[in-house]
Write a structure and sequence with these properties.
This protein is of the alpha+beta class. The protein has helices at residues 4-32, 36-39, and strands at residues 60-65, 69-72, 74-75, 87-90, 94-100, 111-114, 119-121, 123-129, 132-137, 143-150, 158-166. The model is unreliable at 38-43 (pLDDT under 50).
């Protein structure tokens, strides 16, 4: 027959085992939390908004359109296809690309690449205004584009800015895949 002391020790042992198992499950759950949206098919769409003017203290790449200015999100590595949060706008409304930064490089260091036709697009004109560089490409047909921008950080390298242009002939706005 078990004494009260032995029963108490057995109860403490079971509680420790349950506590350790619960702690392990919670730890694995927290570590796996970032994977849940992609594995469950939940897509979080980025919202690109048009603002009235180019932010003077907001470094990055922007699309200047007839309706306003839209920031292009940057990626630290090249992607094999257009990211789901790429900016999307009418090809006819694009006026120029604008780079804002502490240190604006010469226009030749910024590369615009047409992903569908697989070639670079030249700059028709460029204009520098303080910490802003306006890059006017030749006419851009609808398609997917990549703007490669040199970084300003200590290690150098590039950031990759993706966007899609669509034709005003379409009745609905296309979304990236």
């Amino acid at each position: 027959m078990k004494t009260n002391h032995q029963r108490g020790q057995a109860k403490v042992g079971r509680l420790r085992t349950i506590g350790a198992g619960l702690g392990l499950v919670l730890l694995v759950g927290f570590l796996a939390l970032p994977l849940f949206p992609s594995t469950l098919g939940i897509v979080a769409k980025a919202q690109h908004v048009l603002v009235d003017k180019i932010p003077e203290d907001g470094p990055g790449a922007y699309l200047l359109t007839d309706q306003g200015v839209m920031q292009i999100y940057d990626w630290r590595m090249p992607m094999s296809k257009l990211p789901p949060d790429a900016a999307i706008l009418q090809a006819e409304s694009l006026r120029s690309l604008v780079i804002v930064g502490r240190q604006v490089h010469p226009a030749a260091t910024y590369v615009l690449y047409d992903l569908g036709r697989q070639h670079t697009v030249g700059w028709q004109s460029t204009q520098r205004q303080g910490r802003q560089l306006f890059l006017q490409p030749s006419s851009l047909p609808p398609g997917d584009y990549l703007l490669i921008v040199p970084t300003e950080d200590l290690f150098g390298g590039n950031t990759y800015h993706y966007f899609r242009l669509y034709s005003s002939d379409l009745h609905t706005r296309p979304y990236s895949q």
